[in-house]
Amino acid sequence: MKKALLFVAGFVALLWVSLSPSYETYAVQGSSQLEETTVKVATYNVAAGRGTDGAYNLERIATAIENTGADIIGLQEVDVNWGDRSNNDNMVALLAERLDMEYYFAPIYDFDPADEGEPRRQFGVAVLSKYPITDAANREIARLSTQDPDPVPKPAPGFLEAQINVDGAEVAFYVTHLDYRADPIVREMQVADMKEIMAAHTYSILVGDMNARPDAPELQPLFQKYADAWKWSVEEDGYTYPAASPDRRIDYVFASPRIEVHSATKMSSQAADHLPVVAEVSLIEGSHSYNLEGTEWLVDHFIEHGDIQGTETSTLLHNHLRALNYYKRQGKNEKLVKHLQGITVLLDYEKEKGHISGKAWEELSSDIDYFKEKWNQ
């Protein structure tokens, strides 16, 4: 106990010295050996390939996707051998071939074929990617079926999770399509389910048709946890529906605050009844936070999910990160590096004491090592 108190006292003393403004100023270097890749990510409700004129035209959808310039795009309302409305096409396979992209499809509905021996009839969400999809799964969230004459909310598939390797950055990419009904109760359940699933990954992007405006109470947990890419748009409203005369924003791109967002825009198209939304983001090899605020978010995330335990541990981590932010604003590179080393010692000590899980230690240590390399130039 005495040893622990002395250790904590040492950190508090170090923090006190850290906040003194009397030190010499150094230029902060911003380079790193790790590759940073800027990509465009997007979301698009393709309305089963039907445009605002009501006609099915998959080439028109492909052109709209092409025009977004998206490297990774989530699609909603995708038909796979569904029926006459989409010529019984496997829409996602045809789009992937046409656009030379990898894909994964997550059906919401999966029915027997109308005729024996034919492919199964499916409808759901999909992802298209120019980068390798290393793993993918169709997760369950609450749904109120549109195919059941007497539905009740229950877990059902159609929440897509894909691990995508972007030049060494492993990003968890999620695609969703939330309930359309005026009563928000199902969407509220869906958001809670999605957050629980997404908690497993801290370097993630969520895209989709949320069927609710930004001020909807049921969406607030997403706005509180993740960064809404539209914040970085220079456009006024972000309205995406209906495509012919948009009057509401219901299509979104969210990112973990560890990921840098540069811009966001909506694309004009009549190929479907929604407009595509595109965001430009940067991903760092090794899946690191791009700034200290991202690492603070990571600490809060691990506290929330029990991977960091104890008020003392949490306070020390936050105090060190605040000191780092102070030094970064002052441009004091030497002090930045010293405090980063202090955080490394703290993380090792708290892990040894069982106050930090292996996962939290690994991700936080990786961030700190990245910043050491970035600033120790």
What does this structure look like?
It holds the Pfam family FIMAH. It comes from Oceanobacillus picturae. Keywords: Endonuclease, Hydrolase, Nuclease, Signal. This is Endonuclease/Exonuclease/phosphatase family protein. InterPro entries: Endo/exonu/phosph_ase_sf (IPR036691), Endo/exonuclease/phosphatase (IPR005135), FIMAH_dom (IPR054470), GPI-anchor_lipid_remodeler (IPR051916). Helices cover 34% and strands 26% of the residues. It has 377 residues and is an alpha+beta fold. The chain folds into 2 domains: 107 residues, no CATH class; 249 residues, 4-Layer Sandwich (Deoxyribonuclease I, Chain A), CATH 3.60.10. Strands 3-4-2-1-12-11 form a 6-stranded mixed β-sheet, covered by helices on one side. Strands 5-6-7-8-10-9 form a 6-stranded mixed β-sheet. The N terminus is likely disordered.
CATH architecture assignment name of the largest domain: 4-Layer Sandwich
Sheet with most strands: strand arrangement: 3-4-2-1-12-11
Question: Largest sheet, described in full?
Answer: 6 strands, mixed
How far apart, in Å, are the first and last alpha carbons?
39 Å
Which value, in Å, is the CA radius of gyration? 23 Å
Secondary-structure element series: HEHEHEEEEEHEHEEEEHHHH
Helix content: 25-40%
- Dominant shape: elongated
* Chain oligomer state: single chain
Strand content: 25-35%
InterPro entries: Endo/exonu/phosph_ase_sf (IPR036691), Endo/exonuclease/phosphatase (IPR005135), FIMAH_dom (IPR054470), GPI-anchor_lipid_remodeler (IPR051916)
Protein name: Endonuclease/Exonuclease/phosphatase family protein
GO molecular function: endonuclease activity; exonuclease activity
Domain Endonuclease/exonuclease/phosphatase: 42-271
